[in-house]
Amino acid sequence: MIQVGTTNTRNLRPGKPIYRENPYYVSPEDMQKRVEESQAENQAAFRQQLADQATATQADIAKQLQIVQEEKSAVAKMQEEYTASLKAEADAKRQAQEEAELALRTSQANQMRAGQAPNLQIQPASQTPRTGGTQPFKRRRLMIDSASPLSSSLNIGLSNALNI
């Protein structure tokens, strides 16, 4: 018990002392209990915090794993598309080569057959001269007079200047 005050507060004479139990005093047993309770609460809060962090970490890992799997599937899809395009390109190249070989064989066969074609010519019935078309007609001589220049009808002197 501690003295917390007196009964007389109006005059200056001392009054009866008032004793009360000390609210700040804690026995060692109570102190030990409070420390243990505080440590237990802290440990429980720490365990809860660790559990929350573990849950959050697991969720984050699951999200990252899903992202990686989606990226792998996207990469696999792109690889399949690239392989398909390479295959289509190779097929187109092979088909073009086959068409070129077929065209070459066809042209070679046509050239060989061209030599085997009969040489048909119509022969005259008798020993008449082989003249035809306009050959019997003689071509008239062109009337070009190169002696008179084109400017002879104009009254122009020897210079190239034109007087009007």
- What would you call the shape? rod-shaped
Q: Into which percent range does the helicity of residues fall?
A: 40-55%
Major beta sheet, strand line-up: 1-2
H/E order of the elements?
Answer: EEH
Radius of gyration using CA atoms only: 62 Å
Counting helices, strands and paired strands, the structural category is mainly alpha
Keywords summarizing the entry:
two-stranded antiparallel sheet, mainly alpha, 2 strands, 1 helix, 164 residues
Write structural notes for this entry.
It is built from one helix and two strands; from the N terminus they run E-E-H. With 164 residues, it is mainly alpha-helical. It is rod-shaped. The model has no long low-confidence stretch (mean pLDDT 77).
In short:
By secondary structure, the protein is mostly helical. It contains one helix and two strands; from the N terminus they run E-E-H.
Could you give the topology of this structure?
Layout (H helix, E strand, L loop, with lengths): L1 E5 L10 E4 L7 H89 L48
Antiparallel strand pairs: 1-2
